[in-house]
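Section 5.1 Outputs to date
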Amino acid sequence: MRAYLAAVDEIGAGTQDLGNPSDFANDLLNQAVMGDTSGVDSLLGQARASQAALARVKPPESCKPHYRLMLAEMKMSVEILQTLKSALETSDSLALAGMAGKGAAAQRQARELEKLTSELRERSSAGK
């Protein structure tokens, strides 16, 4: 279990350098409005690389629910970023507006993943 947690921590380490999420999102949108989607491209590349790295991890049986949820969260992140990029490139305001529902679902999924991660860490530190 500890090896699994270390592996998923390493995969997620790159996303923690983004700073304040709200400021980061505003910067991305400001760039995109000016026609520069390189920030979205960079995030999409990171998300795909993380997804590929996670696919190589072999979780122990006790971590499989966490692993499946993490895979689903990464898949949703890639889908959201792809939709965002496409919508920005085509100035599709309806697609941007439709992202709110996906964003809310992603937030719920992230909270559930945080909860499962905390439970695994507690069990791991207790030696179970």
